[in-house]
Design a protein that fits this description.
The protein has about 280 residues and is of the alpha+beta class. It has ten helices and eleven strands. The protein has three domains: about 110 residues, Orthogonal Bundle (Arc Repressor Mutant, subunit A); about 80 residues, SH3 type barrels (Roll), CATH 2.30.30; about 60 residues, no CATH class. A five-stranded antiparallel β-sheet has the order 7-6-5-4-8, covered by helices on one side. It has a three-stranded antiparallel β-sheet with strand order 1-3-2. The radius of gyration is 25 Å and the shape is extended.
C-alpha cells in the first residue's frame, strides 16, 4: 500500500505525534485509536502508522494476533518532548484512547477514573473577573494606560482608582500580577490581578515617557545547593530530585521576581533566619 501521509501538513503531524505519545506512554497503538480520535479511515490510519515507523523504525513492533503495535522499551521520541502532565491528561481521563478529555484534570470533582488516580493540592481560586482579565491583557499587549480600581493589603495609598501603564504579567507560583508603572506613586509596582475590582477600557500611552524598569530588565543568577547540614545520602537524593549537576543548580531569575522565587523555594529573601529546607543558597 502506498504511503499517503505527508508529515509536512499540520493535521498529519498531529496524528504522527499522537502515535508517538501512545507508544511512549501507553505502550501501544491501534489503527482504530486513530480512526476514533481523528475521524479518519482505517486505510489512512495504516498509512500514518507506516509513516511513523519510517521516521522511527525501532519504536514499535506489530502483533498480528492482537492487531496492535507495541512500543519498545528502548524507543526514543522523535516528534515531541514527553511530559508526564500531558500523559495524565490524555490517558487517565477515562476513555483510554488517543483523544481522552483533559477536563478531568481541570476538575477533580468529575466522576472519572482520573479522580482516583491523580490528585492535586486544592487551592482557593484567585482570578479576576473576565472583563478585568481582558482589559489587562489588551493593555499589556498594546502597551496602553489602564485605570484600575485596586484593593491593596499594604495599608498604603494604593486603594481605589489609579492610572497604571502596563509592562508585563508575572506569576509567583500561585496567582498572577501585573508589572506596571503606577502614575500616582511614580514607580513600578506589582498589582495582584484578582485585587483589581474593575477597570476602564485601556487608553493610549502616547507621549508618556517611562523610566527603565531596572528590576524587571535585570537578570540575576541564583546558585542553589543541597542543604549541607543534611546527611550525604539525603543530599544525593535532593540533587537527583532537582537535577543538580556537579553540586550546584544555577537558576536565572528577573530581579523583580526574585523574592517570589525565594519564597516559593522556602528561602528567606531579606536576611531572616532560613527555615529547615532541602535547598540553600550557595554562599561561595
Amino acid at each position: 500500500m502506498s504511503n499517503t501521509t505527508n508529515p509536512e501538513t499540520w493535521a498529519a503531524l498531529e496524528r504522527l505525534r499522537s502515535i508517538e505519545r501512545s507508544l511512549w506512554w501507553r505502550g501501544q497503538v491501534k489503527r482504530r485509536d486513530l480512526r476514533e480520535a481523528f475521524g479518519i479511515s482505517l486505510a489512512q490510519a495504516s498509512s500514518d502508522v507506516q509513516r511513523y515507523l519510517e521516521l522511527n523504525p525501532v519504536a514499535a513492533r506489530y502483533d498480528l494476533k492482537a492487531k496492535t503495535y507495541w512500543g519498545e522499551p528502548h524507543m526514543e521520541c522523535r516528534l515531541h518532548a514527553p511530559r508526564l502532565e500531558e500523559a495524565l491528561a490524555l490517558y487517565l481521563g477515562g476513555s483510554g484512547g488517543l483523544a481522552a478529555s483533559t477536563m478531568a484534570l481541570a476538575s477533580p470533582s468529575l466522576p472519572t477514573p482520573v479522580a482516583a488516580r491523580v490528585a492535586f493540592v486544592a487551592l482557593p481560586a484567585r482570578e479576576a473577573v473576565l472583563a478585568v482579565q481582558r482589559a489587562s491583557f489588551f493593555a499589556v499587549y498594546q502597551e496602553l494606560r489602564l485605570r484600575i480600581d485596586y484593593g491593596s493589603l499594604s495599608g498604603r495609598r494604593e486603594v481605589g482608582w489609579r492610572w497604571i501603564v502596563h509592562r508585563a504579567f508575572g506569576h509567583n507560583g500561585y496567582r498572577w500580577h501585573l508589572r506596571a508603572w503606577c502614575e500616582e506613586n511614580r514607580d513600578y509596582r506589582d498589582f495582584v490581578l484578582s485585587r483589581i475590582r474593575q477597570t476602564e477600557w485601556p487608553k493610549d500611552a502616547a507621549g508618556i515617557e517611562l523610566p527603565k524598569d531596572e528590576d524587571w530588565d535585570t537578570w540575576e543568577e541564583l546558585t542553589l545547593v543541597a542543604n549541607p547540614a543534611l546527611p550525604e545520602d539525603q543530599r544525593n537524593s535532593i540533587e537527583a530530585d532537582f537535577g543538580i549537576l556537579a553540586g550546584k543548580l544555577r537558576l536565572p531569575v528577573r530581579r523583580a521576581m526574585l523574592d517570589y522565587t525565594l519564597d516559593h523555594l522556602r528561602l528567606r529573601s531579606r536576611g531572616g533566619k532560613q527555615l529547615p529546607q532541602m535547598l540553600k543558597l550557595d554562599d561561595a
